[in-house]
Amino acid sequence: MFFKIFDALYANDLKKTWELLDKTAKEHPEYINDPSYMSAKSMAAYKAKDYKTAYYEADKVVKLAEKMFAPKKPYEMAAVNEHYRNDMYTMYLNRYQALMSMGNFKAALNDINNALKAYCTPGALVAKASILMKLNRIKESAFVLNEAYDKNKYILKDKENYKRKLCGEFYANGEKNVDICSDYFKILENEKENKGDNQL
Q1: Where do the domains of the chain lie, and which CATH numbers do they carry?
Q2: pLDDT tens per residue, range 95-122
Q3: N or C: which end of the chain has fewer CB atoms below 10 A?
Q4: What predicted TM-score, i.e. pTM, was given to this entire model?
């Protein structure tokens, strides 16, 4: 049942996703508090830019996991049992992205840190670097982004606009020790030199 919901979700068919979520709630109300149902609803709400619902559903999943695994933290279970790794990682990511979109950067940073404890991926490191930039922790942001780049040299290959924006912020703040931005920094330096020449 949940496979169909996630298939529609990953295909970006929000209309079908919501139809399946509503159908599941009506025919099987006991599934409303199932972690898979709540995660799917959180992700669907996020895609629909309903960030409050996205947060509400994701938060329920996190609290359920915390209660289930107490006194251990959910991310600790991910380290002990690989079976939990992706679920715990996704759980924190869902709440992080809702918090990020609502502008609660400090809470978002806490969730992305927990996601990284569950499963350290280049994508989550980039997300952390972005939050640190929002919090004006520039050097820490550069360090984390370099860590992501070390894990995957092509991490921002398909996100050129995002890369330019992020690198532009590093450049504007005088932070040049960002490996993934080296080529873009050269472009900015050349533009700066050309602008100076034109003013002469």
Answers
A1: 2-119 (1.25.40)
A2: 999 999 999 999 999 999 999 999 999 9
A3: C
A4: 0.87
